[in-house]
Amino acid sequence: MLSSKSKARYEKLSGGIEVVESRLLAQLVETLNTEISQKVITDATQAIDWMKGTFFFKRVRKNPLFYGMQ
């Protein structure tokens, strides 16, 4: 089971009290290079579509200041 500290955190997350932010930005170059080398992404349009499907993209749109964007 969970410790009481973990339980409280998961309750906050599931209740919408605590917000989770993406950590993709710190590894974005490496992640994109991996997707390109595996031929998941083969052109700029696919790269944009891939980005739009990430949790990072969703969070940037909701909280751009957290990611240093306006």
What does this structure look like?
- By secondary structure, the chain is mainly alpha-helical.
- 54% of the residues lie in helices and 0% in strands.
- The protein has helices at residues 4-14, 28-37, 44-52, 55-62.
- The longest helix has 11 residues, at 4-14.
- The model has no long low-confidence stretch (mean pLDDT 93).
Work out the helix count: 4
Computed structural class: mainly alpha
Number of strands: 0
Helical fraction: 40-55%
Strand content: under 5%
What is the general shape?
Answer: elongated
In short:
By secondary structure, the chain is mainly α.
What labels would you give this structure?
70 residues; single chain; elongated; mainly alpha
Question: Topology, please?
Answer:
Layout: H1 4-14, H2 28-37, H3 44-52, H4 55-62
